[in-house]
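Researcher: Go.
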Amino acid sequence: MHPEIAATLDAILKAHGTVPPLWTAYPHLHPYSIGWRMGAGELYKMAWSKWWRQQVWTEEQRLTYVRAYPFRAAWLGHVISLLWGISIHDPEVEVQPYFEAAQRLGFASRAEFEADLKAQDWGMRRSLP
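Model: Structure:
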């Protein structure tokens, strides 16, 4: 592991005892912001990704983790990926059943997800709704 990623991961674990999801570290960054690939969120995302791949959790444990950190509707695609290991961008995957399952769990609807992706307040809003 790159030393900078390892140091970041160690610092996060020391501060929180776990690694909170991306939306908690930089709540003003849109899920598809360039800030996750270069800029403020890049190092956090790399550390979080390394940590996440090491977790061997059941679906219930992943759900408990996600529920511990409220998120804007635009993060629902990421949450679906965390819970069920699929990409909503994979053309081979029928995603509607996953959106429906997420809504049954009390998360946003697909319409709310799509509307929040287009919201104009990204970069201005510093806290969750």
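Model: Helices lie at 3-16, 22-25, 42-54, 59-67, 76-84, 96-104, 110-117.
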